[in-house]
Amino acid sequence: MGVLANKRVLLGVTGSIAAYKAADLVRQLREQGATVRVVMTRSAQEFITPLTLEALSGHPVRRELLDTGEESAMGHIDLARWSDVVLVAPASANLLARLAHGLADDLLATLCLAADVPVLVAPAMNRQMWMNPATQANVQTLEQRGIRRLGPALGEQACGETGPGRMLEPRDLVQQLAAQFNGGQLSGLHVMVTAGPTREPIDPVRYISNRSSGRMGYAVARAAAEAGAEVTLITGPVALPLPEQVRGVTVDTALQMRDAVITEIDGTDIFIAAAAVADYRSVDVSSQKIKKTQSRVELTLEKNPDILGEVAARPRPPFTVGFAAETERLREQALDKLINKRLDMIAANDVSAEQAFDREDNALEVYWQGGGVSLPRAGKEKLARRLVALVADRFHAKHPGQAH
């Protein structure tokens, strides 16, 4: 698996003879670990059947903007928010023109307008259509608005002519799509992330812990690696595979996590504490399983070390980012933690009413001295990339000229 592992790719297919290549494109994207959902225009269905792309993607193909049967399950806004990237391949001259004029007259065009993620287009058309001043003006407009163009390539075309206008081959599109996630904002920097829960033993079979799947912390570590950082992940016990290009250190208890962090902290530029560290541990740990012979058992607890506070209090601390999981007064308590622990940034989430635990999505309120931003609910992988981009911006604002 490469950089596209766990990425959500929304593939738009328009009316072009190159639409047949979409089948191979879906296959190659899935081989790279991406989840693919396909949206087809009506004209695209004249070149390749939705059933083909449904079978290859493993998901129903969306075709109609006002399909009430599907809108109730996933509206066009939800589908746009689901994605990490939108790739239109092939992108016809008609689609480019409609996007340039901001039209929302079918599902695909509407999704491109609603998307808050990168939109990439892979043009495919006759060479004269490509070189027409109208098409060139539309492409220039789209590029000025941040839509990235992939191709077209030179070569023989279905009409028998030769010139620019061929859609890039699927393997080239996959490579360029993967490059989209390698931003390099943290190139040359060392990032340490803590993730998951800690377990504080009571006896050989029982422990005290906090609720945490580790998904958010692992997603942050993966996003930091994608941004070019050297990443060390200090992780409590979770059922997740270690992200690629991330060095992992596994621990069980808060004391072990503290020791691992302090051992590894020298040379760290950014410290992101996403772990749900247990606040207390049992003073007395039984060497044998405690038998259920009494109606009540009393435990004496003592505080665990404040790992985040200790890192932030170092003489030359790294750029320090904390997490705050709160059930009430989210902003107030997050800002108190930001100030009292002298953090550079804090990411707070509301965990009341099961809003964050054991879910694949989350929402964050991010604060720093004199500012803040809301990151709306999204998949944790997508949310992590947004958070890491914020961290990179704030880090470079504090340390201008440092490795980038």
What are the SSEs and their pairings?
Layout: E1 8-13, H1 21-31, E2 35-40, H2 50-57, H3 68-71, H4 76-82, E3 85-91, H5 93-100, H6 107-114, E4 119-123, H7 127-131, H8 133-144, E5 148-149, E6 153-156, E7 162-166, H9 170-179, E8 190-195, E9 199-203, E10 206-209, H10 215-226, E11 230-235, E12 246-250, H11 254-264, E13 270-273, E14 280-282, E15 301-303, H12 307-312, E16 319-326, H13 330-340, E17 345-350, E18 361-368, E19 371-379, H14 380-398
Parallel strand pairs: 1-2, 1-3, 3-4, 4-5, 8-11, 8-13, 11-12, 13-16, 16-17
Antiparallel strand pairs: 6-7, 9-10, 14-15, 17-18, 18-19
Features:
single chain, 404 residues, alpha/beta, Rossmann fold, 2 domains, 19 strands, 33% helix, 25% strand, elongated
Task: Describe this protein's structure.
The protein has about 400 residues and is α/β, with parallel strands linked by helices. The protein has two domains: about 10-180, Flavin prenyltransferase-like (Rossmann fold, 3-Layer(aba) Sandwich), CATH 3.40.50.1950; about 190-400, 3-Layer(aba) Sandwich (Rossmann fold), CATH 3.40.50.10300. The chain has helices at about 20-30, 50-55, 70, 75-80, 95-100, 105-115, 125-130, 135-145, 170-180, 215-225, 255-265, 305-310, 330-340, 380-400, and strands at about 10-15, 35-40, 85-90, 120-125, 150, 155, 160-165, 190-195, 200-205, 205-210, 230-235, 245-250, 270-275, 280, 300-305, 320-325, 345-350, 360-370, 370-380. Strands 12-11-8-13-16-17-18-19 form an eight-stranded mixed sheet, sandwiched between helices. Strands 2-1-3-4-5 form a five-stranded parallel sheet, sandwiched between helices. Helix 13 (about 330-340) links the parallel strand 16 (about 320-325) and strand 17 (about 345-350). Helix 1 (about 20-30) packs across helix 9 (about 170-180), helix 4 crosses helix 6 (about 105-115) and helix 5 (about 95-100) crosses helix 8 (about 135-145). The longest helix is centred in the last third of the chain and has 19 residues, at about 380-400.
